[in-house]
Design a protein that fits this description.
- By secondary structure, this protein is mainly alpha-helical.
- The protein folds into 3 domains: 3-101, Orthogonal Bundle (Arc Repressor Mutant, subunit A); 103-181; 183-272, no CATH class.
- Helix content is 51%, strand content 6%.
- The chain has 12 helices and 6 strands.
- Strands 1-2-3 form a 3-stranded antiparallel beta sheet, covered by helices on one side.
- A hairpin with a 3-residue loop joins strand 5 (86-89) and strand 6.
- Helix 4 (104-118) runs antiparallel to helix 5, helix 5 runs antiparallel to helix 6 (157-180) and helix 6 runs parallel beside helix 9 (205-217).
- The protein is elongated and about 70 Å long.
Length: 328
């Protein structure tokens, strides 16, 4: 059987392509927790994530058993016999027997780990795996991603928040890798969308620094200053504080047009041009001495040298198989 479980949005399940009709939010939360843990999940852990300690039912074990009974029934109605994927260890807890590739969050984690391993040493691979990881969360998300596990109630909030932090780390790493590939111009619209998505985007200094650098490398220094000023206004209004030293230093580097902000290959080209401007002979190359032309005789036009002294500066400052799903 091929099972697909989503927990990064509304909790949902399909088995062999058939959607499982689940019950209320509590029942879906129980299934989501089983999908994330995959191993044996103790009854106490399930209860602590489904209810507040002071608001739970008198007999939480019986309530959990009721939820599991409903989930098994829904599984069998979708695909007969699929309820056997949920096993019970009497007196201990429950287990959902599926592979990691069946759960969107677990696929995200594996892909994000591959992207992190590639890092800026291999930005092409980092972007390839990073974009696939982020896609598991769906489109049109801000710097924190969607709310996973339908965590509108307190018990699941800490778990959901930790998952969103992982999304933010993966997103920023992917943006840095894109910048390392020299895609600053292409990134500008996406960066603006992220900054304007919600208050978290507007207040995120790492995102603001990437935007400032992207504008600078694209030759739009004025827009970089606008990003800094807008960030400063937002932080002062929200927290009564200025941007960090790191962000202020980046602004100063942009003002000074610091070569350190250029992409490595661009900086090397500029250094070569500064040392050996076009039209200037390289002292390391021996040039054949030309015979002087006789006086009064004009040099043929095709042999006249053009003045090429000027040059342009460019101010760019456990592994899963994702082609197949685990068979369960």
């Amino acid at each position: 059987m091929n099972m697909e479980i989503r927990v990064l949005d509304r909790i949902s399940v399909t088995i062999d392509g058939v959607e499982v009709r689940l019950g209320d939010r509590k029942q879906r939360a129980v299934l989501g927790i089983l999908a994330l843990d995959r191993g044996w999940v103790e009854k106490g852990r399930l209860a602590s994530l489904v209810w507040d300690l002071d608001r739970g039912p008198q007999n939480p074990d019986a309530q959990i058993q009721g939820y599991l009974k409903g989930i098994r029934k829904a599984f069998d109605e979708a695909v007969p016999g699929s309820s056997r994927l949920i096993t019970t260890l009497r007196g201990v807890g429950y287990q959902l027997e599926i592979g990691a590739a069946s759960v969107d969050y677990l696929r995200f984690r594996e892909l994000a780990a591959l992207a992190a391993a590639a890092g800026l040493e291999d930005p092409e691979a980092a972007v390839r795996f990073g974009r696939k990881a982020l896609a598991e969360w769906g489109d049109s998300t801000g710097v924190r991603g969607r709310m996973p596990l339908e965590a509108a109630e307190p018990p699941l909030e800490n778990l959901a928040e930790a998952m969103r932090q992982e999304y933010q780390v993966a997103l920023m790493a992917c943006l840095h890798a894109e910048m390392a590939r020299g895609r600053h111009k292409e990134l500008i619209p996406e960066l603006a969308r992220l900054a304007g998505h919600d208050s978290y985007g507007a207040e995120n200094e790492e995102l603001a620094r990437i935007r400032m650098l992207a504008y600078h490398r694209a030759g739009e220094g004025g827009r970089a200053y606008e990003v800094f000023d807008r960030l400063r206004h937002t932080l002062v209004k929200a927290f009564g504080s200025d941007p960090t030293k790191e962000t202020s230093q980046l602004k100063d580097q942009i003002i000074k047009d610091d070569p350190a902000l250029l992409l490595p290959e661009t900086a090397e080209k500029e250094e070569e041009n500064d040392v050996n401007p076009e039209g200037t002979a390289d002292p390391a190359v021996e040039v054949e001495q030309e015979e002087p032309e006789p006086e009064g005789r004009e040099r043929p036009r095709f042999m006249q040298r053009a003045d090429n002294g000027q040059h342009n500066k460019f101010f760019q400052s456990e592994t899963l198989n994702y082609n197949e799903r685990d068979e369960v």
